[in-house]
Structure formats: structure tokens, C-alpha cells
Amino acid sequence: MPIPGKHRRKKSGPIARGILAVGAGGAVVALPLLGATGAHAAEQSAPAAQSAQQSAETYKVVPGDYLAKIAAQHKIKGGWEKLYQDNREVVGKNPGLILPGMKLTLGAHASGSASTASSAKAETAKTGTKTAATTETKAAPAAKAESAATTTKAADSNSTGWTTPVANATVTTQYHASGAMWSSGYHTGSDFSAATGTVVRAVGPGTVVSAGYDGAYGNEVIIKHADGMYSQYAHQSQLMVSAGQTVTGGQQIGLSGATGNVTGPHLHFEIRTTPSYGSDVDPIAYLRSHGVSI
Predict the structure, then answer these.
(1) pTM here?
(2) Which of 67, 275, 277, 282 lies at a 20 to 30 A Cα distance from 214?
(3) pLDDT of 45-99, one tens digit each?
(4) CB-based contacts of 261: which residues, under 8 Å, 6+ apart?
(5) Exposure string (b/e) for 12-46, b if CB count within 10 Å is 16 or more?
(6) Residue 212 banded pLDDT, cuts 50, 70, 90
(7) Are 124 and 184 found together in one domain?
(8) Whole domain around residue 150: which residue ranges?
(9) Cα gap 172→6, rounded to integer Å
(10) Number of domains in the chain
């Protein structure tokens, strides 16, 4: 029989997180809730997260640097894209514009991503199929965007897989233009109008033989094609390929810029019989021989 006047409970005190039970002899004891274990685990995870943040490296940009180079040197998982994502607030909207003196964080957000992934798994388990359905719905537009990008790229190339090095290609300095500004006495390539950050693409399928900083040419890429000829893309602000990589015609290899010996942003493009300076041929005639309208 219940004891009169005991059915109303007062607000709990220090044992609010436990369950009141009557033990032997009528003594009241507090049994801890299972949630307390979770709280304890959360408290223990805080130092681990703090330790992960402290393990992050800081890198100071020097002349000649570009994100792909830094990512490769420091073995950043996810490459330059991940490095840019982690430092977007520092770099700004254009990943090709990194300046000497900038301080980039290497690794901090990688730890954060792992933590976020763990939280996402826990949330998915908690909300069940509703979360899974939402995730699937959000993924659909991304798939559509990727498909659209592929279509655009294919449309830019001709049926043989050859294209111009930049879209809406306009030559500003012709091949063999003469002048004292060039060490050979003439222009060894064709300059294309390209604002900093313009997508630079391989003109045809081939293999990257070099990608890096090359003095007056700044950041450049050289690609060997199946016919034994070499294409060169100079003064880039950002390189997105590395030596030994196979590329297709129209594939993005970097972003245009104004590195090296230049008076302003543009793309210097050459076709050569060897990968070295001094073996140049008319680049526009070469592209036309591959069916490119220019």
C-alpha cells in the first residue's frame, strides 16, 4: 500500500542524473543513468580533439610555390584541392593566387574532417532511414553537375580529341614576332589572352614530362604527344598535373597567371620537337593540322 503524501516528488538535487530506488531497510539510493557514461566519454574526447589541432603544421609560402607543389611536398591527402579547401579563407576565391608570406595550415582540417565523419555516422545511426534518404537526395545534384561538366569538356574538343589551350582562344602575340625582349630575338610561341585563373587545358592526349617552375617561363607544364611532339604551357599561377601523368585532350592541367618573366597575365604556348627550349615550331599551324579551328 502506498505511503500517503509520498507520491509528489520535489525537484531533484545533486542526484538529478540518477534514478531513486528503495533499497533494503527502506533506504533511498541513487542509481546512475547510462547517459552519464556518454558524458564521460565526451569529456575524454575533448583532449584528443585538442591534441589533433595542435598537431597541425603551418607552412609559409615562398616565391615559386603553388598549391599542387606544396601538397605534393607535404603529402597532403586529397592533394591541392584539399589544401585549398582547408585554407580558403587565407587564399581567397582564386586558388591560383597564392602569394609569398601567406601562412597555410597543413593537416588541421584533416583531423576535423575525421571527427565530422564520426559524428555523421552517429547521426545517421540515430535518425535511421530519414538521414539516408536526405543524403541520397543531396547527392543527386552533384552527380548532375559532374555529368554537365563532362559534357561541356567533350564539346570543347573536336572528334580527334584536340583543342585550344584555353577556351575562346585569342592570340595576342604571334609566333616569330621579333623584338629585343626575347633572348632568341623572336617569340618562340603564341601568347593567348587569359586572365589569371583561366583554365589551361592539354591541347591533345599525351604524357606530362615535366611540371614545375622554370625561370623566365614561371610555372610551366610540358606534355609529350603520340606523334613525338611536345606542347608547353607557361606562366601559370597553378599547376594541377605532375610528371608521368597521362592526360586527355581538353583536360585541365592548371590555371593561367603571370609567373616568370612577364608584363601581365597570359598563357605562353609552344609546340616543340623536343622538350627543351630552341626546338619550337609554329603552334597555330600544328593545332590546325590536328583539326583545331583557330
Answers:
(1) 0.52
(2) 282
(3) 555 545 444 467 899 988 667 787 888 888 888 888 888 889 988 888 777 677 7
(4) 215, 216, 217, 218
(5) eeeeeeeeeeeeeeeeeeeeeeeeeeeeeeeeeee
(6) very high
(7) no
(8) 111-156
(9) 93
(10) 3
Give the pLDDT confidence score for residue 293 in this predicted structure.
92
Give the DSSP H or E segment for 153: helix 129-156
Same domain, 254 and 195: yes
What angle is formed at CA 128 by the lines to CA 122 and CA 134, rounded to 5 degrees?
A: 95
> How far, rounded to the nearest angstrom, does the alpha carbon of residue 2 sit from its chain's CA centroid?
69
Q: 193 with 217, same domain? A: yes
Sign of the torsion formed by the C-alpha atoms of 106, 108, 114 and 120: negative
Beta strands per DSSP E along 117-205: 171-173, 190-192, 199-201
Q: What pLDDT does residue 84 have?
A: 86
Residue where one domain finishes, among candidates 156, 184, 218: 156
For residue 15, report the phi and psi dihedrals to the nearest 5 degrees. Answer: -105, 30
**Considering only CA atoms, which of 36, 88, 48, 46 is closest in space to residue 67?**
88
pLDDT tens, residue by residue, 129-147: 443 333 333 333 333 333 3
CA 211-164-285 angle, to 5 degrees, is 100
What 8-state DSSP symbol labels residue 12?
Answer: P
